[in-house]
Amino acid sequence: MFPALWTDLWTDLWTDLWTDLWTHGPGPAIIAPMSEHPPQAPRMSAAADDVRRHTDRKPEVALVLGSGLGAFADTLEDKVVVPYSDIRTMPMSKVVGHAGNLVLGDVAGRSAVAMQGRVHLYEGHPASDIVFGVRLMHALGARTLLITNAAGGCGDGLAAGDLMCITDHLNLTGTNCLVGPNEDALGPRFPDMTAAYDPALGALAGEAAEGLGFELKRGVYAGLLGPTYETPAEVRMMKTVGADAVGMSTVLEVIAARHLGMRVLGISCITNLAAGISAQPLSHDEVTETATRVRSQFEGLLRSVLERMEPA
């Protein structure tokens, strides 16, 4: 009796679901209408024009500087600071530690452009806004991306204050910046993510860290939606599926960069141990405090990597 009852219930449930989908189409939580995916190439062109009103620099390297790490942009020589507010449709973050400037200048003999601050999905921005900065820096000329973040450590051997070279990622945000009609001017419909993080750049970063007298850890970064920190159960799950560090950024930006054909080096600053590993409650203050504490080491690593990179 009971197996037959459950079979009838499941049959009715799926019949109702598929009838509703067939009649009304999928809801907005499943697939957004095409009108909600406007072309991004014209938006990038307009934003690039705004930046060029401030400077005619053509950067080789793009940098995304995460929570508490934006001070590196202040060390660029002959720098030009363009506030995000001066760039049409540039999304701005309200999160502490994200200044909101695009900085162009020279570092280690290279022309660079750096984002001081990024926006996040948990602030309510669409995926196209999350990757706007990366696409803009590419439109300005950058073909290599050095992307950084503050992350919680869940992998074995990681401690607060460690720097970790990202070898791969898990996109657990529930979305993708390439959903919708593909823009062939930006990249292919189905970009390959086999080597999302450039192995040669990762090896270069390891050598740079060794030259500076410390070990650069290596691991997989899991990007989540946020804004809540993960529960201990979620951390155990992510560790089981291969994550070494967890955060609320980076993965969509890297997808956009690879779609554009950019080489990517990702570095996480492990600012705290993830929930359930440390008994200490998690807070954003701890994130920014740890990032500030290791700032000089972090900046030294970025500078050394840039010095060691082959000319574009």
Topology pattern, helix = H, strand = E = HHEEEEHHEEHEHEHEHH
Q: What summary fits the major beta sheet? A: 5 strands, mixed, barrel
Q: Biggest sheet, strands in spatial order?
A: 5-8-7-6-9
CATH C-level category: Alpha Beta
Overall mean pLDDT stands at 87
Q: Would you report the number of β strands?
A: 9
Structure description:
By secondary structure, the chain is of the alpha/beta class. The protein has one domain: Nucleoside phosphorylase domain (Rossmann fold, 3-Layer(aba) Sandwich). Helix content is 33%, strand content 22%. Helix 2 crosses helix 4 (132-139). It is globular.
Name the features.
312 residues; alpha/beta; Rossmann fold; five-stranded mixed barrel; 9 strands; globular
Ordered list of secondary-structure elements with their pairings:
Layout: H1 2-24, H2 41-52, E1 61-65, E2 77-83, E3 101-107, E4 110-116, H3 127-130, H4 132-139, E5 144-153, E6 163-172, H5 199-211, E7 217-224, H6 232-240, E8 245-247, H7 251-259, E9 263-273, H8 284-293, H9 295-308
Parallel strand pairs: 1-4, 1-5, 5-9, 6-7, 7-8
Antiparallel strand pairs: 2-3, 3-4, 5-8, 6-9
Helix pairs in contact: 2-4, 5-9
